Structure formats: C-alpha cells, structure tokens
Records
---
Amino acid sequence: MSTELLEQKFNEKIDQEVRIEPKDWMPEKYRKTLIRQISQHAHSEIVGMLPEANWITRAPSLRRKAAALAKVQDEAGHGLYLYSACETLGVERDDLLADLHSGKAKYSSIFNYPTLSWADMGAIGWLVDGAAIMNQVPLCRASYGPYARAMVRVCKEESFHQRQGYEIMLTLCKGSEAQKKMAQDALNRWWWPSLMMFGPTDADSKHTEQSMRWGIKRFTNDELRQKFVDVTIPQAEILGLTVPDKDLKWNEERGHYDFGEINWEEFFNVISGNGPCNKQRIDARKKAYDDGAWVREAANAYAEKKAKKKVA
Amino acid sequence: MTDQNKFDYILQQADNCLILGQRLAEWCGHGPILEQDIALTNISLDLIGQARLFYQYAAEIQGEEKTEDDLAYLRDAWGFKNVLLVEQPNGDFGFTIMRQFLYDTFSCYFYEALMSSSDERLASIAAKSHKETLYHMKWSADWVIRLGDGTVESHNRVQQALNELWSYKDEIVIETSADSDALAAGYGVSLAELKEKRDAKITAVLEEATLSIPEGTYSHKGGKEGVHSEHLGYILADLQFLQRAYPGNEW
Amino acid sequence: MNKNWPLWEIFIRSKAGLNHKHVGSLHAADADMAVQNARDVYTRRNEGVSIWVVETKHITASDPDDSDQMYEPAKDKAYRHPTFYDLPDELKHM
C-alpha cells in the first residue's frame, strides 16, 4: 500500500474515532508527537512526586501521612502507566529517562516551584491536581489506544487527589490564624503557576492545531484554562481565601470569569531552566537513577543465573 | 491508665511500625526503579497502618481522651520504645533491604504468635498485620537473595550492610519487663520461641544469598527502654514539626 | 552494562469466576519479580485476586494488515447467532 493510501486510511480512522493501536500504521510525525507528549506527561508525574514527597515525613497527623504517601505513590504509578504506553511506540523507558536527565525532555514547569509549608500539600492537590484533571479527562478519549487506556486508569486514581488537597485547605481555613495565613500564602504562590500549567495561549501554542486534528488533544489551552478558573473561583470562596488577581471578575456577558494577564516571561523562564527548583528536581531524579544502577544490574545478573540453572 | 504494662507493650510494636514506616517513606520518589519505589511505599503504608491500629488501642487504654496522634506526635524520644534497628538511616538500597529483612523476620513470627493472644483486640490486629508482613518478608528475602547472589558489587554492598546491622538484630528479641509481664499475663508473645524460628529463617535466606554470617554476638540495646541513637531525635524533629510548632491545632 | 529490565504484560483476574484481563505492563528482572511488581503496581486498590505475567516479547499478535482476511469473513455468518432463527412468540424462552 502506498504511503498516501495508508495515511488516508489512518485519517479516516481518526475521523471515525477508531482508536489507533501499536501495530497499526501511523504517520511518523504522529508517533513522534505522541512519544513527546506521553513522555512529557510521564516525566511530570515522577518529577511531580518530589515537591510533595518533601512533606510526607512532616505530615501533621498519621491520617494525613498515609494519604500523602498513597497520593505520591499513585504518581509513581501514573508515571509507570504512561511510560508503558510510550513503550508501545517503540522506545524504551531508559531512553526516555535519559532525555529527562539531559534536559532534552520537558515536564510540567509547575514542579519547579518549591513546597514551603504544609499548606502547599493542600494547594497542590486542589489546584495542581485540579488543573491536571481538567487536562487529563479529555485524554481518556485520545486517539491512541494505549494512551487513552492509561489515562482512564490515571483519571480513576486521580479522583481522590484533588479531594484530599481541598480537605487539607478546608481544615487549615477553619483553623487558627496561623493556619489560615499558611493557606492564603500557599494559594498566593500556586495560583499563577497553576494557570500556566495549561500552556501558552492558543495564539502561541505551536502544537495545538495538529494535535487537535489527530485527536491527541481535545480542547485548546485557553479553553481549559478558562474552565479551570470558572470552577476554581467558587471553591476559593468556600474556603474564604482571596485569589491573588486584582483583575478577576465575573463577566456576565461571556458567562465566564475574566482574569488578569499571566506573566509569560516567568513561564518561559521556568521552562528554560530558571525556575527555583529546576536543577534540584533533575538532580534528585538523576541521583535516584544512578544510585539504582547497581540494584537493577544485580537483579538482571541474578535472573540470568537463575535462568541458566533452570536450563541445566 | 487501666493497664500500664499493656500500654507499654503495645507501644513497643507501634513505635517499631511508625519509625520504620517513616524511614521507608523517605524513599518515596527516590527508589532505584519506579516499580520498586512503589513497592517500598506499599510497605511503608502497611507499617503506618499497623502503627495506627496499635496507637488507637493504646490511646484507649490510656484514656484521658488521647488519640493516635497524641502518641505519635507528642512524646519525646525517651518515650519511644522502638528498637534501634528501625531508626537506622536508609543508607543505600541494599542497607534498606537488609534492615527490612531483619525486621520482617521478627515481625512476621511476632504477629503469627500474637494471633493467639488472650487479648482479642491484639489478636485481631496481629491477624491483619501478619498477612501484610508475610508479603514484606517474601519481598525483602527475595531482594536479599537477589543482591547477595547478583553481581560482585551487589554482593559486597549487601554483605557490608549485613555486617553493620548484625549487632542491631537481636535487641528486638531480648525480653524487657513489658515483654515478660505480657507473656505471663497471656496476651504477649514468647520471644525465646520466636527467636528460634526467626534465626532459622535468617540463616536459610542468608545462605541462599551466598552471604557470610557475621560471627559477632554483641547486641546494641536501649531502644525498648527509651534510650535511643542520635538518629531518633532527627526523625521526630521531622515527624512532629507541625504539631510542635502549632500546638493544639487540627490538621 | 546497564540494560533495562525486560517488559512484562500483566493480566489480572478482578474476582473469582472472571477472565484475566490485560491491564498494562511493567518492568521486572524475572517472572517472580514481575508478579510481585504487578501486585504492588496494579492491585493497590483491591483490583485483583489473581495475576498472570507474560514477558512482552513472547506475545505473538495478529498483523493489522491482515485484518480484512482475518475478520471480515466472520461478519456475514449470521446463522451462527441465535437471532438468525425465526421462532413463534408463544415460545417464550429458548
């Protein structure tokens, strides 16, 4: 079959919402885009473990400790599911990790911000996971089968994350003055980075159009960002917290909240490596990987020995 | 307090679970491969869960409207009764594995025996925990064998860990007065019987792992009586920070 | 030497009486470890009572290019299905 014909069949499948599976023919660019997108997502999950893991040992009650640990562990699981989905496209996890460690691969820039107080565990669950869910739910219908299936699993598990985050915020906001201050401070620091999580504006987003065509992106960055603001503002009001945006107001005509201009200079700075924790995060991942090398080798060596014994 | 001795006895195991669970939680996000990162946190979660069951029971015995968190967060180091083994720092993965193995081989047989405790509550906590611990012991024993019989490097590393931890393995089976009183009262476990089973298991696994068994018989102790290593203070500084910095708040 | 642990496909029986179903994949050095990893990764929320693991390289899959010849021929054999047969309404269950 000619490439044109294959491409035509592929596009028909996409149009009819028929999932593409690993062994199906796909345009090389589709495959590359998927690898980039899925691995970026996987990297975000495992780098995203670090800011929250930072507070597990200091969680203020045993109940919170167990929830925090289970939550961060889920993120390891999500990374694993997503790397696995990526591996169906003919790349190995180790190669993807090498790209993360070398700085070639990107991950969500929000994890380059530090977690400075316990309230950050609340704010991350509420805002960062909230934004992530908004991004992720539509991807359960992504055109690539293994990706869509991984996302179904991720979204199912993710559902408790935002709730536990919001519950932390709620408890703090009902608590002492110091606790309220902690909560407000966390919102002040995480609000704008959360809005940035949806990526550049549609006008500046270079991948959006093609990805929408391919069904691996279902809504534009600005659509999702608006949706996030609209659902989050009432949640902030319940907490009695002030969203740090003086331009924020309900627009009756649009039926949406208007909000202020995002500091894109900061966004691009963090992406290009100048965030407060970029180096720290990658160093931690590299160290875990390098320190684990002898363990992985030993397990391989032992497995080989055992296999030989079985044969003999 | 209705029963000081039972309270002390429960705290010994509760504190073991909490401190080791806390140590394992430090691995979260830093494991040698994602699959094992998840395995480590699973064990940590089991241990924290076990600690909570024991603390909840101890708090009831203590009365005065105490909670699990009062016991975990508001005692100072001298009130903690965990063994020195579990407060040792993680070291490399091999060290963590060996520490875990030396603990699991105790806790597995401990819970097995505690299931016949005359105290129904303890027996039921033991039954639940025993299932979890069986899996932990399988996991840590498999890793001891894998590392011991893996590469030269892994063998050396895990042998080194064994040598360093050897003098910490027996404190947990040396009877305190809480242990002997609990045994006499019928709700405790015979550590002498347990030690025999445990030692046999340790020897079998270490042999399969091609590791050489250290000769020393010296045992560090003190933890069960509240005399700890310097490590515990730092563990508690982390663990208790928020409760100490903002006393009396809900979290 | 720093080679990846092999990839394994994981199948889980969610409760007694049901088929094992493919749930995803993971890395493990050997089969025993694959079962343990599968337990730790894929049954954290009580999702299973039994696990199968198969090293990915041992799976043989049909070729999507052959789909037409493989699966089309079965489409017009309506007589294999119960609804193909007309029976009187009085006959309530058959």
---
Amino acid sequence: MSDPLLRVEQVSKAFPIRGGGSLQALRNVDFEINDGEAVGLIGESGSGKSTFARIVVGLERASAGRVHFQGREIGGLRPRRRRAIQRDIQMVFQDSRASMNPRLRIHQIVAEPLLTHGLDGSRRHVIELLERVGLGERFADLYPHQLSGGQRQRVAIARAVSTKPRLIVADEPVSALDVSVQGQVLNLLKSLQEEYGTAFLFVSHDLGVVKFFCDRVSVLYLGRVLENGVAGPLLSSPNHPYTRALASAAPSVRVRDQRQRIVLSGELPSPENPPSGCCFHPRCPEVIPDLCATVEPGRSSTEPGMARCHLLTPARTTEGAS
Amino acid sequence: MADVVRVSVRRGPLPRIRTDPAFAIALFLFACYVVVAVAAPVLVPHDPNAQQLRDILRGPSGSHLLGTDEYGRDMLSRLLLGVRSSMVVGAVVALISSAGGLLLGLVSGYMRGVVDFVISRIVDVGLAFPTLVLSLALISALGVGSTSTMIALSLGFIPFSARVLRSAVLGLRQEGFIESAHVTGVHPARIVVRHVLPNLLGTLAVQTTMVFAYALLGEAGLSFIGLGVQPPTPSLGNMIASGQVHALEAPGLTVAPGLAAAVIIMTLLFIGDALRDAADPLTVR
C-alpha cells in the first residue's frame, strides 16, 4: 500500500504555563489516515484531542514530531505554502455559530474557500453546494444567526466540502446538536464521504457516533494514544481497561446490552503533572501494583490494532493465566 | 427540518431613531452642530470681529440676539463661528487619532510578538502622560495655534484608541470564524479586511465619538488657557476664557459657549452609546 494520506509521527505538544513549567497536551502521538478513511479520535475533555486536530489543520504547531500529508512534511511549512495545502484539508468546528463571521451572508461564507483557492465561487455553484447539504436557495441570503444549529452545521459542511478536500477534520461536529439533528448531520457527512471519497479525522467523545461513522479509532488519554484499531471490534471488545471503561459508560437502549458499568474513580489527572509509569494507573480498576506506577507500558499488538497496557504484554498474560 | 428562524436583522443604527428618543434627539442636535460648523460663515448675522465700542456687554436685543461682548462684537455670530472652530478641531482630532489607533491596534493585536511588544510599550508611555500635559508639551514645541492644537491632541489620544482597538483585535483573533478562515487558507491581509475590520467598526465608532467629545473638551481647555485657537478667531474655549472676566455683569458670555460645549459633548456620548449597540448585529433590543 502507498503512503497514507496523513501520517503523524511522534507528535508532542507542550504549552508553556505561567510561572514556569509546561502542560504536556500531547506526547509521542502516532496516527495515520488512509485516503477515504474515517478515523475517530476519542477521549475525555482535556485528553488533547482538540489540540491534535488543531495541529493537523495548522492552527497550532507541534513542539516535536512530524506531520506528513500526501507524503510531504507540512508541520514546518512557511505560511504561504501552508495556505495552498489548506485547499485539501478543511475543518468543521464544534460551534458552528462561532465559526462563521456574523456579518457575512451564508452564500459569502460558503464561497470563501472557493474564492481563496481560485475556484468557482459563483452564486449558482454556492447554491448547488447548499442544495447538496439539504439547504435551499432561500438560505443563501440569510445571516448565520438566523439559522438553527443543525442548519448552520450543514452550512459549515458545505463550506468544508466546497474545495473537494482530501481530508476533513471534524472537531465534535455533532456534539452541540440535538440527538435527532445529530443523526441527520451524521448521515449527511457519511453520504458526502462516500460520494467524494474524503478522508475524515473525526474528533468526538461520543462512542456511539464514532462507531457509526469511523473505520478506525484511536483512544487518547492525557495526550497519549492508549489504544487504536478497527472501530467495530475495538469498541465492542476493547483490550485496554480505559477503553473498556469508556465503552461501558456509553448508554445503550437495549436492556440485554446492559453490561457491568465500570465507573472510573477520580478526575482526569492534570496534564501539568502527569502520573508516573502508565498515565492511567491512578484510575485503572485493574492496576498491577508496583509495575504500572513505575514502568510505562509499550505497544502490544491486539486483534483490532494496538494497545499500551501491562495486562497485554506477553509475560503478564502467561503469568495471569497460570 | 425546522423552518427558517425569523430574526429581525438590523441594518444599521438608523431604525433606532423610532424606538429611542434620546438617540433621535442626539442625532438631531449633532446634525444642527454640523450644519452650524459647515455654514457658520453664511449664517452669521454680523461680522464676528466688528467692534462696536459704544455697545459693549449689551444683553440680548433685536439686532443682537445674544447680546454683545466686551468689545461690542455680536455674541451670536461669535458663538456660531466658535462652534465651527471647535467642531473642526474635534473632528480632525477624532479622525486622526482613530486612524492612528486603528493602524497601531491592528498591527500590534494581529501580528503579536515583538511588534506588539514594542508598540504596546510606546502606547504605555503615551498613556502614562495625562493627555493635556502631553498636549501642552507638544504645543510648546510646535508653537501656539489651532493646527498645533489638532496635532497635539491627536497624538495625545492615539494611545487610548490604540489600546482599545488592540484589545478588540486580540478578542477577535480568538474567534472561531477567524480560525476557520486561517484553516481555509485565507491570506492574512484578507482576513483583516474581511473578518477583523468589519467586526471592529462598532468599537471604532464608539471610540471615535468618545475621542471627538474629549477632543472638544481638550480644545476648550487649551484655548481657555490661551494655547489653542487664537483670538480674534472665536472658539468655545477662548470665548469662555474672555467672558469669565465679565461673568457678573454679562453671564451670557460664558454660559452660552459653555452650554454649547456641554450639549455637543453629551450629544456625542449618547451617539457613541447608540452606535455601540447598533454595530453588533446580534444585540437584542
């Protein structure tokens, strides 16, 4: 197989904090998206998933590591070169209202990426795009605040697909919407993905949404990838205790599905002062005394992908079986 | 899918006239002052500098509606021309300091880094001096007169406008739609013109009217102590100064220009307030 569309290698991001020290938002993250693939990034608030999305689209610079897009290093590009690449990387934000200039009309908002990259920004083309996302011509002359949240997110999607990008970074694109509207917007994204073959980096904390939308998933905790792999198997039978806890906490409508809920104790530790060893050990229900607090687990390959947990290292597995 | 949510879009500050009588009155008064400022040379009933030494310090009469001053000059004519010279100083100062403040605020708020640091420290120094003291120093260097008054006051107010606009730009930089434009690959110059500037207009309008008001006050102060507009050319400040000597016999000589100054300053503050509300299309009435 050829190069993946997006390959992120060993990316770290540290934010300096007032009074010295730094906040380690991401640590040695590896991540790949192939052409046309939808990859989910899940984690709690503060896990670094939005920071990761912002590095991919160029709103932040990684402190270390490399970001390759279509085989080119783009992390350190000069602004001018970088802007040209943005035609192929667009973004859908969580807060559709904030992501639109309140003084521009919908047709101007959708036309902006087209005009920026020298494409057809005519009103007719913009209306075609609006119709493609289920909005009609009557929306073209309205202002963003005159639309409902779902309608605005459709506009944001029309704007994002307008340049036919290879990759769309969607940062919690449906989490601000009502559940009924969430479904419509997800179906729209899915159909556009199939139509254009666009790859997605889909950031979410909603496992159900990720399971529906994504081919593969990475689980982020305190800026580290704890587990990744093919979405279906990973979310239905997770290997890492953290993913298990996340999966058990996702609500389910069927009574039979009610699994034992794993309740994590305590809060997400501060990324300013991450725990030693395995970063999950203070909250892990299956913590191995001594080992987890001191030694950071390496990668273990699993059925759907990889996980970092001492429970999965071969030595441990045999020991546990005996 | 839900129908389009109907929200009235406000096209500008003008519809406010119908709902806000204070704004309507303020606009009307401002228009009157502008007309006077523009047309004063035509409107004056008498030559403002013609002295009638037999008719000094007269009260209002048919031929002199506001009476005469200590040289027997027609007060009404002098007042109209005084308003004119004060308004010119105020408007010029407001425009120059807004333009300068906008430029500095945009550059330092948008570029950040070293540029921002240097500009901000210079602005801090400017803010550390009281505007009038700074203006006094500048006038003593430039020489007395209305042109140097305008230059001195403009320079004195630029730091205020720069500070206000810089913080507005800093706030806008964090907005999702600016980030979205960056992600889209929009050129920074275009982001400034299309996304930052239009959203700064409200702040700019408020700042400009405020500076207009304070510049009128500053001009009056400087002219009062004899550093601003030079007699015999009337200005609200030098009229108050020359009138105060006769405050007991002819209180009108100070009250009339004083009132004229107070009214225009209050008018400008009202308008600034209304513009601030109107500039934000999301403000709910």
